[in-house]
Amino acid sequence: MTDVAMALLGASEDAGSVFKTMIRLADGRELFYFDEEATDRSAPDTRDLPTTETNSLIRRDPVLDEWTVVASHRQSRTYLPPADECPLDPSSPDRPTEIPSASYDVVVFENRFPSLAEVPVAVEGQDSAAGLLASRPGNGRCEVVCFTSDHNSSFSALPFRRARMVMDVWADRTATLAALPGVEQVFPFENRGEEIGVTLHHPHGQIYAYPFLTPRVARQVAVAAEHLARTGKLICCEVVGAESAAERVVGSSQHWVAFVPFAARWPFEVHLYPRRHVADLTELTADERDEFAALYPELLRRFDKLFDKPMPYISAWNQAPVHQGRELAHLHLELFSSRRSATKLKFLAGSESAMGVFVNDVTPENAARMLRDAV
Q: Does residue 204 carry a catalytic annotation?
Protein backbone atom coordinates (compact mmCIF):
# COMPACT_ATOMS: atom_id res chain seq x y z
CA MET A 1 0.00 0.00 0.00
CA THR A 2 1.20 3.55 -0.69
CA ASP A 3 -1.14 5.59 1.49
CA VAL A 4 1.26 8.52 2.10
CA ALA A 5 0.70 11.67 4.15
CA MET A 6 3.19 14.27 5.40
CA ALA A 7 3.07 16.76 8.25
CA LEU A 8 5.58 19.12 9.86
CA LEU A 9 6.21 19.03 13.59
CA GLY A 10 7.50 22.11 15.37
CA ALA A 11 10.80 21.90 17.26
CA SER A 12 13.37 24.18 18.85
CA GLU A 13 15.71 26.28 16.72
CA ASP A 14 18.69 24.08 17.69
CA ALA A 15 16.87 20.85 16.98
CA GLY A 16 15.34 22.07 13.73
CA SER A 17 12.06 20.92 12.24
CA VAL A 18 10.77 17.37 12.11
CA PHE A 19 8.97 16.08 9.03
CA LYS A 20 6.46 13.30 9.66
CA THR A 21 5.27 11.00 6.87
CA MET A 22 2.73 8.19 7.23
CA ILE A 23 2.50 5.14 4.96
CA ARG A 24 0.86 1.74 5.30
CA LEU A 25 2.72 -1.54 5.26
CA ALA A 26 1.66 -4.53 3.16
CA ASP A 27 -0.61 -5.88 5.91
CA GLY A 28 -2.26 -2.51 6.60
CA ARG A 29 -0.25 -1.45 9.65
CA GLU A 30 0.69 2.22 9.98
CA LEU A 31 4.32 3.35 9.73
CA PHE A 32 5.57 6.88 10.40
CA TYR A 33 8.84 8.34 9.16
CA PHE A 34 10.28 11.24 11.17
CA ASP A 35 12.94 13.10 9.19
CA GLU A 36 15.23 16.06 9.76
CA GLU A 37 14.61 17.15 6.16
CA ALA A 38 11.66 16.73 3.81
CA THR A 39 12.21 13.33 2.17
CA ASP A 40 10.37 11.24 -0.40
CA ARG A 41 8.92 8.33 1.57
CA SER A 42 6.72 6.82 -1.12
CA ALA A 43 8.69 3.55 -1.37
CA PRO A 44 6.07 0.78 -0.99
CA ASP A 45 6.25 -2.33 1.16
CA THR A 46 6.82 -5.04 -1.48
CA ARG A 47 6.39 -8.00 0.85
CA ASP A 48 3.48 -10.40 0.62
CA LEU A 49 2.42 -10.23 4.27
CA PRO A 50 -0.60 -11.96 5.74
CA THR A 51 -2.62 -9.97 8.21
CA THR A 52 -1.49 -10.96 11.70
CA GLU A 53 -4.31 -12.51 13.69
CA THR A 54 -4.08 -11.13 17.22
CA ASN A 55 -5.81 -12.81 20.15
CA SER A 56 -4.88 -10.38 22.89
CA LEU A 57 -6.90 -10.73 26.08
CA ILE A 58 -6.68 -9.02 29.45
CA ARG A 59 -7.69 -10.86 32.61
CA ARG A 60 -8.17 -9.33 36.04
CA ASP A 61 -6.53 -10.85 39.09
CA PRO A 62 -9.36 -10.57 41.65
CA VAL A 63 -7.01 -10.81 44.65
CA LEU A 64 -4.69 -7.98 43.60
CA ASP A 65 -7.13 -6.11 41.34
CA GLU A 66 -4.51 -6.05 38.58
CA TRP A 67 -4.73 -6.87 34.90
CA THR A 68 -2.61 -9.48 33.07
CA VAL A 69 -2.22 -9.51 29.30
CA VAL A 70 -2.53 -12.89 27.57
CA ALA A 71 -1.24 -12.78 23.97
CA SER A 72 -0.33 -16.26 22.76
CA HIS A 73 0.21 -15.12 19.15
CA ARG A 74 3.48 -13.50 20.29
CA GLN A 75 5.10 -16.93 20.57
CA SER A 76 5.83 -16.73 16.83
CA ARG A 77 7.54 -13.31 16.89
CA THR A 78 11.05 -12.84 15.50
CA TYR A 79 13.72 -13.87 18.01
CA LEU A 80 17.38 -12.76 17.83
CA PRO A 81 17.87 -13.05 14.06
CA PRO A 82 21.37 -12.77 12.52
CA ALA A 83 22.50 -9.17 12.03
CA ASP A 84 22.05 -9.41 8.26
CA GLU A 85 18.40 -10.47 8.72
CA CYS A 86 17.27 -7.76 11.14
CA PRO A 87 13.72 -6.63 10.31
CA LEU A 88 14.43 -3.12 11.66
CA ASP A 89 17.16 -2.33 9.16
CA PRO A 90 16.28 -0.29 6.06
CA SER A 91 15.12 -2.28 3.05
CA SER A 92 17.43 -3.22 0.21
CA PRO A 93 16.43 -4.47 -3.27
CA ASP A 94 17.07 -8.08 -2.31
CA ARG A 95 15.84 -7.90 1.31
CA PRO A 96 12.66 -6.00 2.15
CA THR A 97 12.17 -5.30 5.87
CA GLU A 98 9.63 -3.60 8.12
CA ILE A 99 10.94 -0.24 6.86
CA PRO A 100 10.46 0.07 3.07
CA SER A 101 12.92 2.96 2.53
CA ALA A 102 16.63 2.46 1.88
CA SER A 103 17.50 4.76 4.81
CA TYR A 104 15.72 6.60 7.60
CA ASP A 105 16.18 8.91 10.57
CA VAL A 106 13.54 7.80 13.11
CA VAL A 107 10.69 5.40 12.35
CA VAL A 108 7.60 4.35 14.32
CA PHE A 109 5.33 1.51 13.26
CA GLU A 110 2.66 -0.73 14.67
CA ASN A 111 4.16 -3.88 16.16
CA ARG A 112 3.53 -6.92 13.98
CA PHE A 113 3.18 -9.09 17.10
CA PRO A 114 1.54 -6.72 19.59
CA SER A 115 0.73 -7.47 23.21
CA LEU A 116 -2.26 -5.17 22.86
CA ALA A 117 -4.16 -4.46 19.65
CA GLU A 118 -7.58 -3.63 18.36
CA VAL A 119 -9.63 -6.77 18.86
CA PRO A 120 -12.94 -6.33 17.02
CA VAL A 121 -14.56 -9.60 18.09
CA ALA A 122 -14.68 -11.75 21.19
CA VAL A 123 -11.84 -14.20 21.59
CA GLU A 124 -11.75 -17.66 23.12
CA GLY A 125 -11.58 -17.54 26.90
CA GLN A 126 -13.38 -14.22 27.22
CA ASP A 127 -15.82 -14.22 30.12
CA SER A 128 -17.13 -10.76 30.92
CA ALA A 129 -15.95 -7.26 31.73
CA ALA A 130 -17.18 -7.63 35.31
CA GLY A 131 -17.48 -10.28 37.97
CA LEU A 132 -14.93 -12.31 39.90
CA LEU A 133 -13.13 -13.76 36.86
CA ALA A 134 -13.32 -10.73 34.60
CA SER A 135 -11.71 -10.60 31.18
CA ARG A 136 -12.06 -8.63 28.00
CA PRO A 137 -10.31 -8.15 24.65
CA GLY A 138 -6.89 -6.52 25.01
CA ASN A 139 -7.75 -3.38 23.10
CA GLY A 140 -4.79 -1.03 22.91
CA ARG A 141 -1.81 -0.38 20.70
CA CYS A 142 1.87 -1.35 20.66
CA GLU A 143 4.39 0.53 18.54
CA VAL A 144 8.08 0.08 17.73
CA VAL A 145 10.36 3.15 17.69
CA CYS A 146 13.58 2.79 15.68
CA PHE A 147 16.06 5.42 16.86
CA THR A 148 18.44 5.11 13.91
CA SER A 149 18.94 3.07 10.76
CA ASP A 150 22.44 2.09 11.98
CA HIS A 151 22.11 -1.47 13.27
CA ASN A 152 25.35 -1.25 15.29
CA SER A 153 24.64 2.05 17.02
CA SER A 154 22.85 2.83 20.31
CA PHE A 155 20.85 5.63 21.87
CA SER A 156 23.96 6.76 23.75
CA ALA A 157 25.74 7.30 20.40
CA LEU A 158 22.99 9.42 18.83
CA PRO A 159 24.02 12.97 17.94
CA PHE A 160 22.21 15.72 19.83
CA ARG A 161 19.83 16.54 16.99
CA ARG A 162 18.71 12.91 16.64
CA ALA A 163 18.21 12.42 20.39
CA ARG A 164 16.22 15.65 20.38
CA MET A 165 14.10 14.34 17.52
CA VAL A 166 13.30 11.20 19.50
CA MET A 167 11.95 13.47 22.25
CA ASP A 168 9.58 15.04 19.73
CA VAL A 169 8.60 11.60 18.46
CA TRP A 170 7.79 10.35 21.97
CA ALA A 171 5.66 13.45 22.57
CA ASP A 172 3.89 13.08 19.22
CA ARG A 173 3.05 9.44 19.83
CA THR A 174 1.99 10.13 23.44
CA ALA A 175 -0.54 12.70 22.22
CA THR A 176 -1.80 10.45 19.42
CA LEU A 177 -2.12 7.27 21.48
CA ALA A 178 -3.69 9.05 24.45
CA ALA A 179 -6.48 10.18 22.14
CA LEU A 180 -7.42 6.62 21.14
CA PRO A 181 -10.70 5.32 22.61
CA GLY A 182 -10.21 3.32 25.79
CA VAL A 183 -6.51 4.16 26.35
CA GLU A 184 -5.71 4.95 30.00
CA GLN A 185 -1.89 5.10 30.01
CA VAL A 186 0.88 5.61 27.43
CA PHE A 187 4.23 3.99 28.23
CA PRO A 188 7.36 4.63 26.10
CA PHE A 189 10.31 2.41 27.03
CA GLU A 190 13.51 0.78 25.80
CA ASN A 191 14.89 -2.66 26.60
CA ARG A 192 18.58 -3.11 25.83
CA GLY A 193 20.68 -6.26 26.05
CA GLU A 194 19.98 -9.97 25.94
CA GLU A 195 20.26 -10.04 29.74
CA ILE A 196 17.11 -7.88 29.80
CA GLY A 197 15.34 -10.09 27.27
CA VAL A 198 15.54 -8.21 23.97
CA THR A 199 14.60 -10.14 20.84
CA LEU A 200 16.12 -7.66 18.34
CA HIS A 201 19.49 -5.93 18.76
CA HIS A 202 18.76 -2.96 16.50
CA PRO A 203 18.57 0.28 18.56
CA HIS A 204 14.88 0.66 19.22
CA GLY A 205 12.26 1.21 21.87
CA GLN A 206 8.56 0.54 22.20
CA ILE A 207 5.38 2.32 23.23
CA TYR A 208 2.44 0.59 24.88
CA ALA A 209 -1.01 2.19 25.02
CA TYR A 210 -2.75 0.36 27.87
CA PRO A 211 -6.53 0.05 28.31
CA PHE A 212 -6.00 0.24 32.10
CA LEU A 213 -3.65 1.86 34.59
CA THR A 214 -0.58 -0.23 35.29
CA PRO A 215 -0.09 -1.19 38.96
CA ARG A 216 2.95 1.07 39.25
CA VAL A 217 1.32 4.24 37.97
CA ALA A 218 -1.92 3.51 39.84
CA ARG A 219 0.10 3.20 43.05
CA GLN A 220 2.01 6.42 42.35
CA VAL A 221 -1.24 8.32 41.87
CA ALA A 222 -2.78 6.84 45.03
CA VAL A 223 0.29 7.73 47.11
CA ALA A 224 0.36 11.24 45.65
CA ALA A 225 -3.33 11.75 46.45
CA GLU A 226 -2.87 10.60 50.05
CA HIS A 227 0.23 12.79 50.50
CA LEU A 228 -1.50 15.84 49.04
CA ALA A 229 -4.51 15.38 51.33
CA ARG A 230 -2.24 15.01 54.36
CA THR A 231 0.38 17.70 53.65
CA GLY A 232 -1.01 19.93 50.91
CA LYS A 233 2.09 19.16 48.81
CA LEU A 234 2.88 17.02 45.77
CA ILE A 235 5.12 14.12 46.75
CA CYS A 236 7.24 14.00 43.58
CA CYS A 237 7.97 17.74 43.73
CA GLU A 238 9.18 17.26 47.29
CA VAL A 239 11.33 14.30 46.20
CA VAL A 240 12.91 16.38 43.42
CA GLY A 241 13.76 19.10 45.92
CA ALA A 242 15.20 16.69 48.47
CA GLU A 243 17.17 14.56 46.00
CA SER A 244 18.58 17.63 44.21
CA ALA A 245 20.51 18.43 47.39
CA ALA A 246 21.55 14.84 48.16
CA GLU A 247 24.83 13.06 47.52
CA ARG A 248 23.21 10.68 45.05
CA VAL A 249 22.94 13.23 42.21
CA VAL A 250 24.59 11.88 39.05
CA GLY A 251 23.84 14.73 36.64
CA SER A 252 21.84 17.93 36.49
CA SER A 253 20.98 20.95 34.38
CA GLN A 254 18.77 23.99 34.68
CA HIS A 255 15.63 21.98 33.94
CA TRP A 256 16.50 18.37 34.93
CA VAL A 257 18.05 16.41 37.78
CA ALA A 258 19.27 12.80 37.62
CA PHE A 259 19.87 10.87 40.82
CA VAL A 260 20.13 7.39 42.27
CA PRO A 261 16.98 7.22 44.43
CA PHE A 262 17.29 6.92 48.20
CA ALA A 263 15.54 3.53 48.19
CA ALA A 264 16.88 2.22 44.86
CA ARG A 265 15.72 -1.31 44.07
CA TRP A 266 18.28 -2.10 41.38
CA PRO A 267 22.09 -2.13 41.78
CA PHE A 268 22.39 0.71 39.25
CA GLU A 269 19.25 2.82 38.98
CA VAL A 270 18.86 6.47 38.03
CA HIS A 271 15.71 8.57 38.03
CA LEU A 272 15.63 11.59 35.72
CA TYR A 273 13.07 14.26 36.64
CA PRO A 274 12.18 17.62 35.13
CA ARG A 275 12.44 20.19 37.92
CA ARG A 276 9.11 21.68 36.80
CA HIS A 277 5.94 19.70 37.53
CA VAL A 278 4.64 18.35 34.22
CA ALA A 279 2.25 15.47 33.57
CA ASP A 280 3.72 13.94 30.44
CA LEU A 281 6.09 14.39 27.51
CA THR A 282 3.69 16.60 25.60
CA GLU A 283 3.98 19.32 28.28
CA LEU A 284 7.76 19.72 28.08
CA THR A 285 9.03 23.00 26.63
CA ALA A 286 11.57 23.22 23.82
CA ASP A 287 14.31 24.13 26.32
CA GLU A 288 13.43 21.16 28.53
CA ARG A 289 13.57 18.80 25.55
CA ASP A 290 16.90 20.26 24.46
CA GLU A 291 18.46 19.70 27.88
CA PHE A 292 17.16 16.15 28.10
CA ALA A 293 18.67 15.33 24.70
CA ALA A 294 22.08 16.38 26.05
CA LEU A 295 21.86 14.90 29.56
CA TYR A 296 20.25 11.51 28.93
CA PRO A 297 22.80 10.10 26.41
CA GLU A 298 25.53 11.12 28.85
CA LEU A 299 23.89 9.01 31.56
CA LEU A 300 23.76 6.04 29.17
CA ARG A 301 27.44 6.46 28.38
CA ARG A 302 28.21 6.45 32.11
CA PHE A 303 26.30 3.17 32.42
CA ASP A 304 28.44 1.66 29.65
CA LYS A 305 31.64 2.99 31.21
CA LEU A 306 30.96 1.37 34.61
CA PHE A 307 32.32 -2.01 33.50
CA ASP A 308 33.74 -0.95 30.11
CA LYS A 309 31.14 -2.87 28.15
CA PRO A 310 27.55 -2.28 26.99
CA MET A 311 25.25 -2.20 29.98
CA PRO A 312 21.91 -4.02 29.78
CA TYR A 313 19.17 -1.68 30.88
CA ILE A 314 15.50 -0.78 30.91
CA SER A 315 14.60 2.85 30.33
CA ALA A 316 11.00 3.56 31.34
CA TRP A 317 8.97 6.76 31.08
CA ASN A 318 6.48 7.22 33.92
CA GLN A 319 3.73 9.47 32.55
CA ALA A 320 0.48 10.67 34.04
CA PRO A 321 -2.70 8.70 33.38
CA VAL A 322 -4.65 9.86 30.34
CA HIS A 323 -7.71 10.75 32.42
CA GLN A 324 -8.02 10.71 36.22
CA GLY A 325 -5.11 11.77 38.42
CA ARG A 326 -3.14 13.71 35.80
CA GLU A 327 -2.53 16.63 38.17
CA LEU A 328 -0.94 14.29 40.74
CA ALA A 329 1.62 12.57 38.51
CA HIS A 330 5.09 14.00 37.81
CA LEU A 331 6.71 12.90 34.55
CA HIS A 332 10.03 11.11 35.05
CA LEU A 333 12.25 8.51 33.47
CA GLU A 334 13.58 5.49 35.38
CA LEU A 335 16.78 3.93 34.05
CA PHE A 336 18.04 0.73 35.65
CA SER A 337 20.15 -2.34 34.98
CA SER A 338 20.11 -5.95 36.12
CA ARG A 339 23.95 -5.99 36.19
CA ARG A 340 25.42 -5.68 39.69
CA SER A 341 29.10 -6.19 38.81
CA ALA A 342 31.26 -6.82 35.79
CA THR A 343 30.47 -10.56 35.96
CA LYS A 344 27.22 -10.83 37.93
CA LEU A 345 23.56 -10.15 37.27
CA LYS A 346 20.78 -9.47 39.73
CA PHE A 347 17.97 -12.00 39.38
CA LEU A 348 14.50 -11.41 40.72
CA ALA A 349 14.28 -14.40 43.00
CA GLY A 350 11.99 -15.27 45.91
CA SER A 351 11.68 -11.95 47.76
CA GLU A 352 11.50 -9.82 44.61
CA SER A 353 9.37 -12.02 42.38
CA ALA A 354 7.04 -13.51 44.98
CA MET A 355 6.66 -10.65 47.46
CA GLY A 356 7.80 -7.57 45.52
CA VAL A 357 10.41 -6.69 48.15
CA PHE A 358 13.74 -5.87 46.50
CA VAL A 359 17.06 -6.66 48.15
CA ASN A 360 19.81 -4.40 46.76
CA ASP A 361 23.44 -5.55 46.89
CA VAL A 362 24.83 -2.07 46.09
CA THR A 363 24.20 0.95 48.30
CA PRO A 364 22.59 3.83 46.39
CA GLU A 365 25.32 6.18 47.58
CA ASN A 366 28.07 3.93 46.22
CA ALA A 367 26.21 3.41 42.96
CA ALA A 368 25.94 7.18 42.51
CA ARG A 369 29.65 7.64 43.22
CA MET A 370 30.57 4.95 40.68
CA LEU A 371 28.36 6.58 38.03
CA ARG A 372 29.82 10.04 38.71
CA ASP A 373 33.32 8.59 38.36
CA ALA A 374 32.44 6.83 35.10
CA VAL A 375 33.45 9.72 32.85
A: yes
